[in-house]
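Repro:
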Amino acid sequence: MIEILEAGFVGLLLALSGTPLAIRVFRRRGYGQLIRDDGPEAHHTKRGTPTMGGTVIVVAGVAGYFAAHALTETAPTPSGLLVLALMTGLGAVGFVDDFIKIYKHRSLGLRSGAKLSGQLVVGAVFAVLVLRFPDSFDLTPADPSLSLVRDIGPSLGLIPFVIWIVVLIAAASNAVNLTDGLDGLATGPAILVLAAYVLIAFWQSRNDCTNGPMIARCEAMASPLDLAIVAAAAAGACMGFLWWNAPPAKIFMGDTGSLALGGVLAGLAVCTKTQLLLLVLGGLFVIVTASVIIQVGFFKMTGRRVFRMAPLQHHFELVGWTETTIVIRFWLVACLCVAAGLAIFLGYWAYA
């Protein structure tokens, strides 16, 4: 338990103190946000706000994880390292995207194909490696199966599993990216889902079959406690960043942060065997993504729009809601989704 608290505290402290430094450095170098001309008019006042703040989240999260292990003199595990590598790899893809926007002074960075290719490559490497590195109980960080609150159904086999995990990772990272359209809108829900994964992974560590044969309901897991440490470190980093990202934001996370956060959420879902449960825990991200799919699909079929603008948060802006109202109400929806996800998880194990 102490490792979880230390990881969260170090991640929080580093992000809280490091973000103002990043703001000064990015502002001095002119790393400011460029705003789309076809977006809501209220966003034009945000032009020039420092971006790429997700760099702070990634650095603080990784540092929090390793600091917790250093302070407790414990060794990192393949599970924790792979999830952190996924977060960092997708953060690097986002960083390139953000840097191109800034360098070329445009609101679009990487071409959609190049950006997706980067996500697919990082996701595929993670999906292959997560089936390797067995521990002393011959447990690998993940099993080649679908999962809800534990593995369900037969093994998918290597290729179908890799394809499924790549789709999950790309969907999660793009969903967070779409949600990151208002000050603090993506950071707050990400904290809530990460906090849920701290609880889930900690519960799994206390009810791990490898702890002994006397546990009535358990699941054989590879290093669930280390996954809780990863989630706590990332959550702490997001909390520190949110202090400066809350409306009115002093800095934006950019694609660097949104892709990295989607990656760490997907990685935790895979390694805690809660792949499908992520759809409930991250329900807000699913809703926002669905609004884009509905808007695009309906427009192609009929030439008309369902929403005034997609993603959904911009529709409510054009309806007349203030930015702070939208952010708080979306956070409330995120709370309900996380509560539902935890209820499903705990309810299953209570009545299994």
